[in-house]
TrEMBL record:
Residues 111-323 form the F-box/LRR-repeat protein 15/At3g58940/PEG3-like LRR domain. Residues 18-58 form the F-box domain. It comes from the Eukaryota. It comes from Solanum lycopersicum. SUPFAM superfamilies: F-box domain (SSF81383), RNI-like (SSF52047). InterPro entries: F-box-like_dom_sf, F-box_dom, LRR_dom_sf, LRR_FXL15/At3g58940/PEG3-like. This is Uncharacterized protein. PANTHER family: F-BOX DOMAIN-CONTAINING PROTEIN (PTHR31639:SF131), F-BOX PROTEIN-LIKE (PTHR31639).
Length: 336
């Protein structure tokens, strides 16, 4: 190509597309990236340098953690991350996830909680490794906008002035240490609660009143169970992984009578044993709303357990699906 044509071609170069994208388009792109990749976009263009600082969703997980300097201590690494978050972030943070398997207790986490409580946090996930129980600071209980909360390996001790989370819709507690007398108080102080998950959290009594509750998933040791004032409950899962043979009985007829809207019921072998002996040959009422029954880790060899399951099935006239997982085989039958 002649020199003149080369010069003409160089003048026709397209403008820098990345630098000329509207801010809302840049924000939309950055928001769809993992946090570590969103931070890296700062090198693409001057226009992109601080866009990640406006992210309303932050996830500090193992993948993000592994890209930080592993030559320094975990406490210093986390402190550096929090320093950049506190100094560079602009605007509210609607969702924050902290899930790092190698991160132990760190005083700077309290600073992070204080920052989140003052920046409109709505969806909070805190997952700590086993053996590193994190005590939630007082600032946690001031998160007035929170609607979704998931905690793992945390210690909850209520301050005297705590009035509850009025906007909380979803609560998940896994391996959380909380005085059993407070679990009912916590739930009753969340009038908008619709979804509740308790895994290996409560070891003795469960007494719950939640007028808007739609699903309850429990895994743990059943000793006493009371679910009252839950007229909207549609999904119930009770999986007892710690049955000792000495647990007190809870009448299943009385329990199920409280759930007129129940559609999905999941019981395992241990939770059925919990109820076995308390079930009449036919429940005194028909649960017409139930569509799906799931029996897991089941053994048909024990007559009382098998009879309990059979009596339950007869009391669900509009049952459409039965799933039975035995210890050796899986039986799936569609009764529709």
């Amino acid at each position: 190509m002649p020199p003149k044509e080369k010069k003409r071609g160089s003048r026709a170069l397209a403008p820098d597309i990345l630098s000329n994208l509207p801010d809302n388009i840049i924000d939309a792109i950055v928001m769809r990236l993992p946090l570590r990749d969103a931070v890296r976009t700062s090198i693409l263009s001057k226009m992109w340098r601080y866009n990640w600082c406006r992210l309303p969703v932050w996830t500090i997980d193992q993948a993000f953690w592994d890209m930080t300097n592993n030559a320094i201590s975990p406490t210093t690494r986390f402190t550096n991350i929090i320093f950049h978050l506190l100094t560079l972030h602009v605007g509210p943070i609607s969702k924050f996830t902290l899930s790092v398997a190698t991160l132990g207790n760190c005083s700077k986490i309290d600073n992070l909680m204080y920052f989140l409580s003052r920046n409109g946090i709505q969806h909070l996930v805190l997952q700590f490794p086993r053996g590193n129980l994190y005590k939630l600071p007082s600032s946690f209980f001031t998160c007035s906008q929170i609607s979704h909360l998931s905690l793992q390996n945390c210690l909850i001790m209520f301050p005297p002035a705590f009035k509850g989370f009025e906007k909380l819709v979803s609560l998940e507690l896994c391996d959380v240490t909380i005085p059993s007398k407070f679990i009912g108080s916590l739930i009753s102080c969340c009038p908008s609660l619709e979804h509740l998950v308790l895994h290996s959290t409560i070891t003795n009594h469960i007494q719950i009143r939640a007028p808007k509750l739609k699903s309850f998933d429990f895994t743990g040791k059943l000793i006493f169970l009371s679910l009252e004032g839950v007229p909207l409950l549609e999904k119930l899962s009770l999986v007892d992984t710690g049955y000792s043979g000495k647990a007190g009985k809870c009448g299943i007829a009385k329990l199920l009578e409280s759930f007129p809207a129940l559609k999905h019921l999941h019981l395992d072998y241990f939770s059925v044993r919990f109820f076995a002996g308390e079930v009449p040959k036919m429940l005194p009422f028909a649960l017409n709303s139930l569509k799906r029954l799931h029996l897991s880790e089941f053994s048909l060899d024990e007559l009382d357990v098998a009879s309990c399951a059979f009596y339950l099935i007869k009391s669900f006239p509009f049952l459409q699906e039965i799933e039975i997982e035995s210890l050796t085989i899986l039986l799936l039958r569609d009764t529709g």
